[in-house]
Design a protein that fits this description.
4-stranded antiparallel β-sheet; alpha+beta; 100 residues; 4 helices; globular
């Protein structure tokens, strides 16, 4: 399935304290900032086949409402987006995003 179609069919987000805390402590990315990325355009969504052993994983390159460029790895559980990790885009990712 196309990751963008998968995102469009989701009804919300699924969070746990571990992921919220990890993303904040390691990269200064809040849950609210992660959620914003999925609603802003442009949004580049692709499968993450390398890390999809136990469940399908995907990543997005996008921007928060404040224009912060983020790389977010996620999966879908129970028709909800579950963010696994979030961080600032690398230089290479920013170039790829700019081409989108």
């Amino acid at each position: 399935m196309d990751p963008m179609d998968l995102i469009k069919n989701c009804t919300g987000f699924q969070w746990d304290d571990g992921n919220l805390l990890k993303n904040w402590e390691k990269h200064g990315v809040s849950g609210a900032e992660c959620e914003q990325v999925f609603f802003n355009r442009p949004l580049l969504a692709l499968p993450d086949a390398q890390h999809s052993q136990s469940e399908p994983r995907f990543f997005v390159l996008g921007q928060s409402d404040k224009g912060r460029h983020l790389f977010i790895v996620f999966t879908v559980r129970e028709n909800r987006l579950r963010v696994i990790s979030a961080r600032d885009m690398s230089r290479k990712e920013r170039l790829r995003y700019a081409k989108a």
